[in-house]
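Reviewer 2 asked us to include a model.

Predict the structure of this chain.
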Amino acid sequence: MSAIDHLVHANARFAETFPGPRPLRPKLRLTVITCMDSRLDLFGALGLDIGDAHLIRNAGGIPTDDVLRSLALSQRALGTREVVIIHHTQCGMDGFDDDAFRAELEAESGEAPPWRVAGFTDLYEDTRRSVETVRNCAWIPHREDVRGFVFDVATATITEVT
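Predicted model (structure tokens):
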């Protein structure tokens, strides 16, 4: 059975006990920006339920233009007010070489990607920088409560970065 077939079967089981639709606006008025890493169980680690928060995930949990677009919509159209940025230990973006990656993609496809894949070398400094990026984004109306954390993939604990 393929991974996609597994998802289809799991969804059928889930739908049998699905309690029904939730409100469109997140209950906690919260947005979590984090990495796409499959080791991050945000619902379990943060005590979230379906419908509690918007979850925006990408490589590294970095607030790229697309993430800021989603966050602006989250706040302006759907009522969120607080933002949590969670980076994590053992991230694949730690030490990532964007120039080499872009060169590889261009060499294989004949086309340079229009986007960059910013890596980092200091997890805590990158978390601080990500918080500042959101706090300084003029499109985001609620920037006063933006906090950053590092999730330890070995212990599942989060530590606030100040």
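The mean pLDDT is 96. Residues 24 and 78 are 7 Å apart (CA to CA). We have added this to the supplementary material.
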